[in-house]
Amino acid sequence: MTDNWIKYLEQKLNQFNPTDVENRETEYKFSRTYYFQTSYLKVEFLDSTTINKVELGTYKNGLFSDYIILFTNSAPNCTKVEQRLFVIDDNENYILTYDKANVENLNGFLDNLFTKGWREEAFSYKGFDYLVIVKVDNATHRIELKSGAEQDIPMPMDKLARKMAVIWNNLKINSANRKIRKLEIKPLIKNVVQQCDISNTKSLKMD
Prior knowledge:
Elements: H1 5-14, E1 20-25, E2 30-35, E3 39-47, E4 50-60, E5 63-64, E6 67-71, E7 79-83, E8 96-97, H2 100-116, E9 118-125, E10 128-136, E11 139-144, H3 148-152, H4 158-170, E12 178-185, E13 202-205
């Protein structure tokens, strides 16, 4: 077993040949984001032996997906899928200390996504995304997207209004204004010619 999470990730991800690696840091935590052809893996650390959060998603033309796939021991297959929000969810704890059990759990989580991939379907109405469906390991995750206003100042009736909007947008009479974008994130290939040297990383300050 490796000595800490940094060495574990370097050893683990080298075989999948990331196209780029980005470092960010603040006074209290730092992160590494590993980019692949259509997906990314972001790991936030409190220190080298403590992970704050693990997330995956898709990335294209400078834009991240509206959803994130999170590692959590409290969900089936250690997998939780939720909307990418600009509000902080203080009710969740994704911290992973470095020990044998957590290494095995994270290893299984990453292998499942990297070697099997996943699918996403993004639904938009008149150019605005309102629903994302993510299919991971035979499980389907449905995310009714919150608007920026709902995230900023939540109101009691927001959830009901969001559900009614999804029902309206999905009606057959609105098919002309509705579009579905589908993306299949293919399994990553191990042990092929390196596309870059992952030691050549970017160093940026986190917002």
